Amino acid sequence: MRYPMLSGVNKRHEGTFEFRGLNLSPKTRQGEFFRLVNISLDKYPNMSVRKLRGKIATLTDGAVIGGNNSGVAWIDNGKLYYNGQAIDGLPTINVQANTQITAFGAYLLVTPDNLYYNTINPADKGTMAVSNASTGSVQYLLSRRDGVDYSTENMTVSASAPDNPANGDYWINTSGDTDILMQYSELSGAWAQIPTVYTKIKATGIGAGLKEYDGVKISGVAAASGTDPRLASELGELNGSKIVYGASDDYIIVVGILRSVYTQTSGTVTIKRDIPTMDYVCVSQNRLWGCRYGQQGADGNIVNEIYASKLGDFKNFAVFMGVSTDSYAAGVGQDGNFTGAVNHLGYPLFFKESCIYKVYGNQPKNFQINDTVCAGVKDGAHRSMAIVNETLYYLNRNGEFVGYDGAMPYSVSMAFADKRFNSAVSGQYINYYYTAAKAEGDTQATIYVFDTKRMLWTSEDSGDIKGFYTSGGEIYAIIDGAVYAMNGKAGTVKNEAIEWIAESGVFGWDNPEQKYTQRFNLRIKTGQTKYTDEQPPKPIEQRIELFIEYDSSGEWEKQGSEGYGSSRRGTLMIPVRPRRCDHYRIRISGTSEIEVYSIDFLGMTGGDGRGYI
């Protein structure tokens, strides 16, 4: 008798031996996961759990984080804090969407409130702008640049030269359209014009906060009716933009000539050192740079401009003396709001949603602004900019994360498939780009971490995240009303269980046959037993669980779990009750430390569901 030949069972043996991070595409590759919670890339190619965080401070109304290489700063309830200490003596900060803490040498600058704080000399703090107004009489008199006035000198005011002058005598020549100050030289026997003449403006408190070479705007200087017309004109010329050549609390010295001493007893004289309204700022080439689209100042002019401070002086934006250290301002052509500013590779960059402006040059006479038309920073996402290993990453106008190395932006959002984000705040740590991003419908931001070296994404947890800042080899963040050191290198590290999840993509799309899963082998390494901080200490639960979802049912069926109380390295075998399915997904989850080397699964294939095998 002849018997039919029977086909053997088709056994499948597959495994994931390299952790390849997050992938939200409908079809993931081996080693990629569709959902990750509190998973790190630190142990690549193994999958591991993120580190415990160190709590630095609890905030009342924390909003902005920044700092410098020596410490971290934040704003809480309108007050600036640096390394945990409140900075008293500054005005209350009006936190806005574009509020920034920017490092300028040892200084921290808070814009657009325009405050400064010297982290080395804490007494050096205040407002960048100055506005002084006279409260009594104001005196105007000719002065040397060093502040010594001419009142004690032998001076003649006339249309013709004085007779029998002595060496060093002064003469204000009034014969022309403008008065000219001259000095007699006995050696040459002639009168020589003094090329630059200065006027001292004296009043109580009129020069407070000002210094040599500040750029100021003077208003309110006026002569009473009946004053000599030429003197009244000379007084009027003191109004407008001026350079300060000397200052003390009760006087300033500016360029100007007066034919006589004059005292103003009515009206108010105002001396202002203004800071332009700037949407976003950055520090580059020892200057504070900024940009503005919209109304500028009290006069209401509509501008579309880029600004640079005087070299080495963030308090001066109106110094134009024709030298290399001058301030700078220029208009640009592209319409629309500015969306961010950053120093990248030594060049100031300014973003709009439609372009990138890059400033070349090293002094005002050779500054050149070039624009690149491309997808710039998304409006409202200026905090998404962070530089990792000389590449700038940001959220663009299309809701995608991109990298920019100085040429053209390129997408790094492939792992997110068609998911688009509305907002993001970001930071840099070693090779990682940290970002907390929200998509349409999200109530909280999720922390995603991009390994720029391996081009892999992972994700941690979600929360109300205001920003990131890196200082002293650690990255800090404001999360749910507290400042945390993300890697536990600072602050109070609380021993607690970290809940972690790793959900795979769909297995089985590659063939139409029915499948049976029999067993999963997890090659793992677990951490040492940890105890809570409470008294008496209790061991922190450590466990790992495995779930399967069959045929997109939406139900996760628990297949097995194991608890562990001490460090171990080896294979965890989880048998699975065989079940016929077309496709399936797996979820492994647990608490506390774990390192997954591989996930190996054993199964079989059956027929195609239509009677064929």
Short key terms for the protein model shown above:
613 residues, mainly beta, five-stranded antiparallel sheet, single chain
Would you mind describing this structure in some detail?
The mean pLDDT is 92. The radius of gyration is 35 Å and the shape is elongated. The chain is mostly beta strands. It is built from 1 helix and 53 strands.
Task: Give a brief rundown of this model.
With 613 residues, this protein is mostly beta strands. It is built from one helix and 53 strands. The strands form twelve sheets. Strands 1, 3, 4, 48, 51 and 53 form a six-stranded antiparallel sheet that branches. The chain has a five-stranded antiparallel sheet with strand order 2-47-52-49-50, with no helix packed on it. Strands 43-44-45-5-46 form a five-stranded antiparallel sheet, with no helix packed on it.
Secondary structure class reads: mainly beta
Large-scale geometry: elongated
What is the assembly state of the chains in this entry? single chain
Number of strands: 53
* Helix count from the secondary structure assignment: 1
Distance between the termini: 25 Å
Residues in helices, as a percent range: under 10%
Low-confidence stretches: none
Biggest sheet record:
6 strands, antiparallel
Rg calc: 35 Å
Mean pLDDT: 92
Give the percentage of residues in beta strands. over 45%
